[in-house]
Amino acid sequence: MFESRAGETGPSGRPLLHVDADCFFAAVALRGRPDLARRPVAVVNHMFVASANYPARRRGVRGGTTVAEAVHACPGLVLLDVPHAEVEEVSDALFGVFHRFAAAVEPGSVEEAFLDVRAGDWGEAARTAQTLRAQVLLELGVTVSVGVGRTKLMAKLASRAAKPDGLHLIEPHHEAELRAGLPISRVWGIGPKTLTRLANLDVHRLADLDRVPREAVQRLCGTTMARRLTQIRNGTDDAVVRPVQHRESLSAEVSTEGYARPDHTPAAMARLCTERVLRRAEKAGLSGTGILLTLQPRDGGRPERRRQSGTPGDGWVHTASALLEREPVPPLAGLRVTLTGLAPAGQEPETLF
Ligand SMILES: [Mg+2]
């Protein structure tokens, strides 16, 4: 979770980068296991596939499916636990690299971001992207793909086309043709409901919008979505990289249902995660004003959240265990600790009220 601030950059026609790590969780898990690199590997969280490497993907393994489905699709699939602590560290380091290369970084997730590298032209953007890719591999041992485009949508489409371990540019003179033929389903942020409504208007590609009155789209999809579609069709869609000053929260997570890991007690998991999250906050020069425990029950039920606010300097490890003692804890598949209300250490957090 990040906080957006003033000082955002664009739209200026400057090429923007979308940087996205390739099968991130699996790549982190495989860093120390070159023996497995060519074998199909999936990393698993709470009995679901969190990420699969490319050999596994080629054999039909997809993120979000159950372990049973994945093994059915790909007998011989190697299963590893999500290495949560390493994922958190590599993600922090990845954003460290992003900030060294870019004047503005807008995070999309733990492993992807839009970057404004202030490239003067497309050649410079491509060179910077390649240097960044080499640097990430050298420092962190994982690959990232980079898309370069004039708007965020173009940069994101380009990074998808670049995968895995590649660079792809969508230069402005290719945009018009690409936009016209673009299937609506590939436009980022268009949900299944909107897709169905547009299909009812016989709109499947962006250019199909040209023969439908704007009012019809508005009536079916709402004003905001209609405006957004028009902007995407016309090329006036979002080209602003909104930088963040600092994170609003930091999380650390651990699972009990490991393939190689012994079970932890809830108290031990809470301590482990709290210590990890505090270490990362300290490294980033941040302190929190609240703690949130998310308990993932083993029976697959809804996660339970317990929170407590306090002041920086509170003993968060103690607070975390007190939260566990407040009520009985069900058998757990995993536990996450989130430090919330982050602000630069030694500074009072800003409040709206
Ligand atoms: Mg990714």
Automatic annotation (TrEMBL):
Segments of this protein annotated with the region Disordered: 293-316
NAD as UniProt keyword: no
Keywords, comma-separated and alphabetical: Nucleotidyltransferase, Transferase
Gene3D superfamilies found in the cross-reference section: 3.30.70.270, 3.40.1170.60, 5' to 3' exonuclease, C-terminal subdomain
Keyword check for Nucleotidyltransferase: yes
Matching PROSITE patterns: UMUC
Domain of life: Bacteria
EC number assigned by the record: 2.7.7.7
Gene Ontology terms, MF aspect: DNA-directed DNA polymerase activity
Domain UmuC: 16-191
Similarity comment text for this entry: Belongs to the DNA polymerase type-Y family.
Function noted in UniProt: Poorly processive, error-prone DNA polymerase involved in untargeted mutagenesis. Copies undamaged DNA at stalled replication forks, which arise in vivo from mismatched or misaligned primer ends. These misaligned primers can be extended by PolIV. Exhibits no 3'-5' exonuclease (proofreading) activity. May be involved in translesional synthesis, in conjunction with the beta clamp from PolIII.
Protein name from the UniProt record: DNA polymerase-4
The species this protein was found in: Kineosporia succinea
